[in-house]
Specification:
The protein is an alpha+beta fold. The protein has helices at residues 4-10, 55-64, 92-97, 139-153, and strands at residues 11-14, 19-22, 37-38, 44-48, 51-54, 71-74, 87-90, 113-116, 119-126, 129-136.
Length: 159
């Protein structure tokens, strides 16, 4: 694992933009160039000394001098936005509570809503258990019930 000292030798982090830039020219790195490549999931991955690191974790190390104990959550839900004020340390559960969009295979298209026959069910997960919040005539009504429950029971969620 890279140390904070080594990180400061090879990269510069701009807290207001979240951009990491190379301070060196070596092994594919070019001084001043934005470090890393964007993954298919929208996160930036940086290779340093033969190891690969997520840029939001490097930003945390750069700013605090130590690796995060938990996950790093992007407050606005955008994995590409590594501005310092957008990053927070969070448990896995808190990180998942900050989800803003439904999974791509969700047929209702709305977070917390499941299509069942001619109705829409609102569901929420709490402590790894799923709870039904009710059955609704429209997906919008089900989503509203989910959002209300999310705000009440997901303190890590920022909706």
């Amino acid at each position: 694992m890279i140390t904070a000292e080594r990180l400061h030798e090879v990269l510069h982090y701009e807290p207001s933009t979240g951009i990491l830039r190379w301070k060196i020219t070596a092994g594919g790195a070019v001084t001043g160039k934005v470090a890393g490549n964007v993954t298919i999931r929208g996160y930036r991955l940086v290779s340093i000394d033969g190891q690969r690191y997520m840029s939001h974790r490097l930003a945390w190390l750069y700013m605090t001098g130590s690796w995060p104990k938990e996950e790093i959550d992007h407050r606005n839900g955008m994995g590409s936005d590594n501005a310092w004020n957008n990053l927070r340390e969070a448990t896995h559960s808190e990180n998942m509570q900050n989800r803003r969009v439904a999974h791509k295979n969700n047929k209702s298209g709305l977070l917390g809503v499941v299509k069942f026959k001619d109705r829409f069910l609102a569901r929420i997960s709490l402590n790894s258990k799923k709870y039904d919040l009710g059955s609704f005539a429209t997906r919008e009504e089900a989503h509203a019930a989910y959002i209300k429950a999310k705000r009440a029971h997901h303190p890590g969620g920022l909706l």
